[in-house]
Amino acid sequence: MSQPIQPAEAPQDQSTKLVIGAVAVTLLLASLGQTIVSTALPTIVGQLGGLDHLTWVVIAYLLSSTVVAPIYGKLGDLYGRKIVLQAAIVIFLIGAVLSATASSMTFLIFARAIQGLGGGGLMVVAMTVVADIIPPRQRGKVQGLFGAVFGVATVVGPLLGGIIVEHISWQWIFLINLPLGILALAVIAVALKPRADRVSHSIDYAGFVLLSGGLTAFVLATSLGGNTFAWASVEIIGLIVFAIAALGTFLWVESRAAEPVLPLSLFRNNTFAVTNAIGFLVGMAMFGSITFLPMYLQLAKGISPTESAMQLVPMMVGLIGASTLSGFFMTRTGRYRILPRLSTFVLIAGLMLLGSMQLDTPSWQVAIYMFLVGVGIGPVNSVSVTATQNAVPREVVGAATAGTTLFRQIGGSIGVSVFGAIFSSGLASRLGDAMPAGHSGSFSAQAVAALPEATRNLVLEAFAGALHPVFYTAAAAAVLAFGLTFLLEERPLSNTLRKEPEAEIKAEEEGAASVVGAPATATS
């Protein structure tokens, strides 16, 4: 079949533009929930203690937002996008307030889990709204914009966190979500119309429980293994066995459910299967890098939280630029397969270079390494969502979008867990018995600076050395992602809103050019 002629850009009325703005605000809110805490972690650990639980402040949010993603897709179909999105924002803000009142690491982890329960809905429902109102080919440019929002949050979040920690207190990194959340609620109230009709759907509660339990057990095993418990311990083996049993039963239940949480037929779709496998691996590298780079900059390089956030700017520039350009490329050409192939290759290079960093590595070199990592991450998210929504039937777009978010978040959760275990194990082996008697195990820039010079130098070398295998492991994940890009089939992006991916092809064959670029109604 010949290449479709490039049509005029689909017109967008004010209602549609307002919807796009509302989605951008909610995605910014969810993204800040993930990233704003990173630069504050050393300070939080310094006050609350519990270095061995540090990664759980991130994992709790990622894990809870991951396991609720599929159910939010079903709730959106049942009750309409608007009410579900508003409920997710309210839950997110409740979790933020609870996090700000935490007086122990345990309570903070619990509060972050509550916050994640809302954050998971923000991402899934917001991106599904876009699939409802914008054709796939024009959606490429919009997804590029959303990729830029994620990129801004990647640096603005840590920067805000650093400034707030230095000049106010770490509690305000959570309270700062309140005005943004209220703004998001207001914009959504105006932009989205409630759905007049209710579609009768059955929610696969058994599948949701089994998927949540299996994923939780797996992430717990990867986090606690080699750290709190030995890998061969009864606890870790038990968690792994439970995870395998729960996920295996989940597959059995899904094959028989009337409306499964995650339809197994999606995995027979090349675009869905391959892009999600790539997203899973890139998610590992992404969240691992974002979590551990501020720690390296603050503790190994001895700079402030604000300065460490500012040094993440090159990563943001690379991520925003690559995401935006990839979006325009998809809209202009209707194609996408080359984008993840190029970006994952660049990601490999950036992560390998980060793994080679030493205490005396110049800041400009670190900036180049971060820029490359950002370029490598940028296009993957926008390509995954756009290509998947284009390749699946309209009636399962919500489930497919939730699946895309699910696998990226699972990759992030497991990545932070695995990298945290690698880092903790490496740090412990390098430090040995070098720490002074009575040291609490809480590390902050101030605590490290107060150590005797010989011990301080040993600690700094240990931190830098313990991070090397973290970045090398992330690079290995990127290598696997690069290999998978060669398995990705390409389907030219449709220019119309349709019930089936093949509808645009059929319309062209019948000469129905009048449907191309038709405006959509901003109703959810």
UniProtKB/TrEMBL annotation:
Its keywords, alphabetically, are: Cell membrane, Membrane, Transmembrane, Transmembrane helix, Transport
Statement: the UniProt record of this protein carries the keyword DNA damage: no
Where does it reside? Cell membrane
InterPro entries linked to this entry: EmrB-like (IPR004638), MFS (IPR011701), MFS_dom (IPR020846), MFS_trans_sf (IPR036259)
Q: Where is the composition biased (Basic and acidic residues)?
A: 500-509
UniProt key word Transit peptide: no
Q: Where is the Major facilitator superfamily (MFS) profile domain?
A: 19-493
- Its membrane topology, per UniProt? Multi-pass membrane protein
Positions of region (Disordered): 500-524
Q: Which GO terms describe its cellular component?
A: plasma membrane
Predominantly, its location class is membrane
Q: Which residues cross the membrane?
A: 18-41, 53-72, 84-110, 116-134, 146-165, 171-192, 204-224, 230-253, 274-297, 309-330, 342-360, 366-385, 406-428, 470-488
GO molecular function terms here? transmembrane transporter activity
Composition-biased stretches, type Low complexity, lie in 512-524
Under which name does UniProt file this protein? DSBA oxidoreductase
Organism listed in the record: Devosia riboflavina
Lineage runs:
Bacteria, Pseudomonadati, Pseudomonadota, Alphaproteobacteria, Hyphomicrobiales
